[in-house]
Design goal:
The protein is mostly beta strands. The protein is about 15% helix and about 40% strand. The protein folds into 2 domains: about 25-95, Elongation Factor Tu (Ef-tu), domain 3 (Beta Barrel), CATH 2.40.30; about 100-250, STM4215-like. The longest helix is centred in the last third of the chain and has 18 residues, at about 180-195.
Length: about 270
């Protein structure tokens, strides 16, 4: 499971249903031969920055996350698309930048990062947290609680991955948290609409993955400054190695399809 994939999808779609996790401004778009030029006054973006477009009603395929390619001026920037046959001139829509949807290593690090922004000038932020995985020992033989060495034509594992989408909602002008609490309920519907049913590429060979499903929504913590709502989702990867058992008992390690994993940085 790759949180970066889920994160990109949220960055691409969530700003289209709520402006609470990005900075927005009006923009116009022109397209010629796969090159898109966005005009937005003092946009402040640099080459390599990501952004999302929305509201370009005659160009629905454009309404997603993109990367800045060049910055010809303080009021314009460019990006490219594959569909070179699409052309447009000065179509109006909305530019979403400074998108506050990020992966994080843990709940505590996410909360600490948010708290360091300082001085009560907080904005709503989403963090994606990997909550780990468990392994089911389903080998088409016996039960999940069984771990005997048994003959079988298949060896199956179910890698159950869980991740949390952590919404940190400031309580500025909302000292009792009522508005933030209502927002957290509405946000769940948007999250479900955006990612539930999505299948993520598996990390394993000879495997398939299930679609993302929601598990729970709960209040992680709250104080006089912000509340933290944790939405937990699950996705399973089904790993299968054919003909592992060729002998009377046990598993032949030579039959496993092992991969050489390069060192980080290579």
């Amino acid at each position: 499971m790759r949180l970066s994939t889920i994160c990109s999808k949220l960055q691409g779609f969530l700003p289209q249903v709520t402006n609470e996790f990005s900075t927005t401004q009006n923009a116009t778009l022109s397209i010629a031969v796969g090159q898109c030029t966005v005009t937005a006054t003092a946009h402040g973006l640099s080459a390599g920055d990501t952004f999302t477009l929305s509201g370009f009603v005659t160009l629905e395929a454009i309404n997603y996350i993109h990367t800045v390619q060049t910055v010809p001026s303080a009021n314009t920037f460019t990006f490219s698309i594959v569909q070179e046959f699409i052309t447009a001139t000065n179509i109006s829509g909305t530019l979403h930048k400074d998108i506050r949807i990020h992966p994080a290593a843990s709940v505590q690090l996410a909360v600490d990062s948010f708290a360091k922004q300082g001085n009560g000038d907080y904005k709503k932020v989403l963090y994606l947290i990997d909550l780990g995985e468990t392994t089911s020992k389903d080998r088409n033989v016996g039960s999940d609680a069984s771990f005997e060495m048994m003959r079988s034509t298949d060896f199956k594992m179910t890698m159950v991955n869980r991740f949390g989408i952590l919404a940190i909602l400031p309580l500025k002008n909302d000292p009792v948290g009522a508005i933030a609490s209502e927002f957290s309920r509405d946000l769940l519907a948007h999250l479900v609409h955006t990612i539930v049913g999505t299948q993520i590429a598996t990390d394993w060979e000879n495997s398939t993955s299930s679609a993302i499903i929601p598990i729970s929504s709960n209040r992680e913590t709250s104080n006089n400054s912000f509340i933290v709502q944790n939405y937990i989702f699950e996705i399973s990867e089904y790993v299968c190695y054919k003909d592992v058992n060729r002998y009377d008992f046990g598993y032949n390690i030579n039959d496993f399809n092992l991969r050489v994993i390069p060192k980080i940085g290579e």
